[in-house]
Amino acid sequence: FCGSSPCAFIDRSQRFPAMSQFIRPNIILLKDGTDSSQGKGQIISNINACQAVVGIVKTTLGPRGMDKLIEDGGETTITNDGATVMKKLQVVHPAARILVDISKAQDNEVGDGTTSVVVLAGELLKEAKSFLEDGLVAPQIIKGYRLACNLALQKLRDLAVDLSEKEAAEKRSMLIKCAETTLNSKLVSDYREFFAEMTVNAVELLGDDLVRSAVGIKKVTGGSVTDSVLVDGVAFKKTFSYAGFEQQPKSFDNPKILLLNLELELKAEKDNAEVRITDPDQYQSIVDAEWNIIYEKLDLIAKTGANCVLSRLAIGDLATQYFADRNIFCAGRVENEDLERTRRATGGQVQTTVQGITADVLGTCGRFEERQVGGERYNFFTQCPSTKTATILIRGGAQQFIDEADRSLNDAIQIVRRAMRNTKVVGGGGAIEMEISRFLREYARQTKGKQQLVINYYARALEVIPMTLAQNSGADGTNILNQLRKKHAAGGTEGRWFGVDCINCGVVDTFQEFIWEPISVKESALSAATEAACLILSIDETVKNPQSEQPQKGKGKGKGKGKKGKGKGKKGE
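Predicted structure:
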C-alpha cells in the first residue's frame, strides 16, 4: 500500500514502451557523410542520367546528323563521332559512364556504330522505365531483354548476306560500299568515294594479319582534301637533326636500311660516373677512350653498307657529320610506331647493338626520298616489294577538319578490316532494325506472361534507329516509320531491306542502293546495348562517399590536428 491507496506493480517496459528503442545501440556501417540511395527510385534516377547523355549524342546519328563543338582546356574539337563526343564530355555520373564505356568498346572493336549503341541502350532504358513505374520488377525486365537479344542476334545471322563466294572485283566493290556507308555520316561525306577507295587500298596492303597499327595516318595542314595521298610504304615527318644533316643525301634507289634502337651520341663519362686519377695525363686517355667508343660504333655501321640509318634514340651531331661525310642518310628519335611500320615495309630487323650485324637484318625498298609536303618535310620509303604497311597523308585547311578526317578514316579502316574477315553484310539505314523488330513482335504474340510485354517493347526500342535517322534528316519520323512497317510487314525478301532514305526524306531499298554494313557492327551494337541496359537495371543501390571525391591533402608530421607538419604536406591530419 502506498498511503491510503494501493499501488499496482506494473512492468516498466509496458509503462514506457518507447524506452526500448533508445536502449538498442545504433549500428553504423558506413562512414559519416556517405550517401546511400536504393530501391526503385535509384534505378529510375540512373535511367534519367543516361537519358540526358543520350539526348546529347542522338542528333549526331546519320548522314544528316549535326556536329558537336566541344571546348576542353582551350582545345576545340568539332566532331559527330559518337565515341569522341562521349569521351570529350567527361561524364562523372557512375551509371551514365557505362554508356561511355560501351561507346569506347564499340569504337575499339568495330570502329562504327558508336552513336547507335548509345541511342539503342538509352531507348531500352526508356522502355524499362515505364515498366518499373507500373510495378514490374527489374529482374523480369532483364530476363526478357536478354531473351529478346538472343533472338535478335540469331535472326540477324539468318538475314545476313554472305559475299564470300563472289569474285574478287565484287568483294572489293563490297568493301568500298561498306567504307562509303561509314563515311556517309562524317564531316568528309562529300569526299566519301575518294576516301573509301583509299581506305580499301590501304587495308589490302596489310597482308593476312590485318594489323590496325600497320596503317599510319599523318596530318598535314594546307592544300585541298583531294591532295591527300596513300603511300604504299612508310612516310613520317623529318625528325630533329643536328648540324651536318643538310649535307646528307636525300634520296636513294634500292637503299639498304639499318634500323636501330641505339643511342649514337658522344657521352662524357664525367657526367655519369666518378673517375679518380693520379696523373693529369690519365684524363686525356679517358677522353680518347670515349671518342674511340663512339667511332667504333660508327665504323661498324659504315661497314654494313647501309645507306639509311634510322634509330629510335638520339643520333648526335658527331654521328650526323660522320654519316654525311660518307653519303649516308640518318634520322634519330624516330617514333616507335613509325620504326615498326618501317620494319614491316622494308623487311629489316631492329638491332640493339652494332656488333655482328649481317646483311640479312638490313631492310630495303625501291625508293627513298625526302620531300616537302605542305610546310613540313617528310621521309618516304616507297616501292617496297614485300610491304605489309601503308601510310595515309591527310591534307586540308583547318586543323579541326583534319582531326575529324583522321577519326573518320580510322572508323572506315576498322570497318574494312572487319568486312575482310567476315564477308557477311546487312542493309543499313535502319532496315535491319525494322526487320528484327517485326520478327520480335511476331514472336511475342506466341509468348505467354509478362515476357510478352518485355519482348514487344524491346522490338519497339529497336525502331529508335530509323526514327532518329528520319528526324535528323528533317523528315516526318512517324510517317517514315509507318511506311517502313508496311513494307516489312509484307514479308519475304522484297521488303526486307527497306530503310530510311536520309537524302530524299523517304524510304528506299538499302541493299539496292548499296547502303551496306558489316554484320559485326550490328552484332556488337545489339549485344553491348542490351548488356549495358541490363547492367544499369540491375543496380538498385548506389553508395557514394563524398570525402573520396575531394583531393587528398598532403600529409605532414604534425602531432595535433590542424597544426603545420614538419614535412611537405600542408597540414597534418
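Summary: Residues 280-303 form the longest helix (24 residues).
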